[in-house]
Every structure is written in C-alpha cells, then in structure tokens.
Amino acid sequence: MPVESGNSAAARQAKQKRKSHSLSIRRTNSTEQDRPTGHREMLEGQDSKLPLSLRSNLLDLFGQIEREFENLYIENLELRREIDSLNERLAGEGQTVDGGDLTKGALKTKASHSTSQLSQKLKTTYKASTSKIVSSFKATTSRAVCQLVKEYVGHRDGIWDLAVTRTQPIVLGTASADHCAMLWSIETGKCLLKYAGHAGSVNSIKFHPTEQMALTASGDQTAHIWRYMVQLPPPQPAADISVSCDDDVDFSDKDEADAEADGVNECPTVRVATTTLKSHQGVVIAADWLVGGRQVVTASWDRAANLYEVETSELVHTLTGHDQELTHCCTHPTQRLVVTSSRDTTFRLWDFRDPSIHSVNVFQGHTDTVTSAVFTAGDNVVSGSDDRTVKVWDLKNMRSPIATIRTDSAVNRISVSATQRIIALPHDNRQVRLFDMTGVRLARLPRSNRQGHRRMVCCSVWNEENQACNLFTCGFDRQAIGWNINIPVLLQEK
What we know:
single chain; alpha+beta; five-stranded mixed β-sheet; 5 helices; 33% strand; globular
C-alpha cells in the first residue's frame, strides 16, 4: 500500500476544515426553522473548548440579536414609507419633508387646517425627542470672537499641562513629556527659562500664590519645588487674526519638525530642585499648592494623594480611598479644600479646614475616568470625564449635578474663569469648547489651516490678569496657544 506523505495529509485536513467551514456558513444562512438543527450540526463539526451547552446559549443569543436588528430594519422602512406618503400629501402645496431637514422648521403650510396640524405635530414630536441629545450642540445666535494671540513652540514632545503665574512678572508655564518645564513670555512667545531636573515626563505645573516658585509633578515618581527668576523682554506687536469661534475647517497635518523654535536652547536652564517630594510609589500625575502656599498636595498612579509641608518636606497625610489610579488634583483658591479625580469614575472632596477632622465626600456621577475636577470661585466643582460629559456640582448638595454638558469627545483638564464663570473644555478630537455654568454652549475655538491645535488638546487655563491673552491651551502637537476670547455680555446671560 502506498504510504500517505505528511504534506498530503496536511492538505487533506485543511480541505476538510474549509469544507466544514463552508457548510457552517450555509447552515447559518438557512431559514429560521432550520436554525436549531444547523446549530447542533455546526457545534458537532467544529473544534472548541467551550461546553456544548454554553455554545448553544451563545448561538441563541446571537439569533435574538439578529431578530432585533431585523425588527429595527422593518421599522425604519415603515417610517420611510410614512415620510413618502406625507411628501405626496404636501406635493400639491410645493412642499416636501425629508428626514434630515425636520430641524430647519420648513413645515409651513398655507393650505388646509388638517395639513397644518400634521406638519406642526411632526415638528413638535421631532424636536421634543431630540432636544435632550443635541442641546449641547446648538449654535448660538450671537457668535463670540476669538483671536489667536501667540503660539508658544519649543517643546520636543507633547505638552500635558500649563499654568500662569499669580504674581509679577506674569509668565506662562508649560509641562511636557520631553522631561522639561518651560517658562514663556506671554507677549513675545519667547522661552525665558527651562527646568530640566526631572528624569521623567513632567505631567503638571503650578505656581506659588505669592513667591517665585513652581511645583512640578513627574513620571519619575517625584514632585519638585524649584525657584525661578526671569526678566521679561520688550513686547512685540501681536498679529491680528480675528475669526468666529465656531469656524471649523479641516486641514492636513503640518510637519512636526518645526516644533522646536529658534532660541529655545539658548534660554537659561535650572537643573536642581529646591525641594524634592519622594513618597509616592507610582507616577505623580498632578500637584497643587494649598491656600497660603505652605503645603502642597500630589496625586499619583499609586491610588493615593499625599499632603506635604513645603518647608520641611514632611509627609503630613496620605489620602487613600480611590480604587484606581488618580488622574488630577486641585485645591480651592480660598479654603483648605482638595479635590482628587480618579479612573474609578469618581472624584473625592477632602476637607482640611478643621485640623482635628479630615472629612471626605465621594462624588459619583460619571461612567468613565474622571480626568479632572476643579473648584470655581463660588461653591461649585466642575468635573470632566472620558464619558464625554462635564458636570457642575454644588458643594452644599452633592447628590446630583446641577448642570450636565454632553459633548462628542472625551474631555481632558478643564478650567473655569473666575471672573466670567466660563468653562473651557479641551477635547481628544482637537476641539476646545466654551460653556457657561448652566451648560449653555458659548463658543468653539477655531481650528483651520492657519491656527488651532493639530493633535489632542490636553489642558486649558484662564489668565485673569491679561485681557489681551485671557485663555491658554496646550496639546500633543507640542505647542501652547494663547487666545483672546471676547464673549458678548448678552451671550453670557443666555
């Protein structure tokens, strides 16, 4: 007898598998009455480590899903027939109804009373069913004006965070994944100082409330406090680039090789920190000064936040309770309150006003990572999340938010203007949107061939001291941008 070679045996097995697979496909596409028998045959003809009963249950579930989609498809066809029928009824008056044009309010009739009632009912029903979904996307009647004042280019990697000094001289600080933090002249866009003391990505930067000191958090599991001295260069005239805040023109990516500006390497460099805080066992993602500047709080991926004394570097408290990594921390501008955000979909409010009691309150309202939570000038906290929502909370009633903003992209580190009470939302999709505290959209920063971010926008910060450049944003396109936002008073009051 001839002996079958290994190659021919393997080929025969592959052929049998293809045949079995084709039979399984035909059985799957069979009628509804044949499906149970086909399922059993398919289970017997395929190799699987799953129990037979479990596989049978899975097939039944997939069959139910298929039937649901069939019902939705049939319902869609019926709705389309109703629209066609309505078009025929209104054809005598020279009007038509299209599924995509109902929001334009084009259903005006000049004929019979019954036709008018039908049109009005369609408009009312459609608007009522979609108002809750699209309320955050409605365009405002009066459009704000945005002016790109200056671009701050020089980092070699994405910029995670930025801040503005609270004392003179007023400068901009940026924290980057290139292991450096930089201080910039707001008027000229020139780099004034570089801090290169970290061994990892610089994830956060905050300035002391009264002294020329900066606090940076890093992926090297430390937070640094370092002093700076800068001298502002003479101002230069800013380019006049005024456009509507809702302009949105798509553009191709620019060459990222231009991200390093001339003269950045020539600015002074600080490499040694005044104080190093080392108690964390994971990446330090954020840090902030408590009111008065005598203590700082840090947030880490080790699921804890630490409270330190600045003068002695002593660890005062370890704030535990989050179930997953922390993403941000923020302090109240006038009270000893701290809020920490986490990937566990919650953020926590820590109260240090009473030295003997350190209470904590948990806010639960998001369904995904809380990327940031910040205090406002009043008794509110605003939280942003990867679930594409931003919520405004009242510290006196923490059970539910007083306003919810729904967007089309994940929200990163937000900021709230203390004077105008406007929320700036940086998004993963390169957009930056502005809302008021009630959830009404005020504007959207432009993004076109000439201006705007080309990558994810990571952070925003308001500058209350300079009306010429009152909002800054930064992103993973290696640049920070200074904007002048002019929102009419009537638009803010809406």
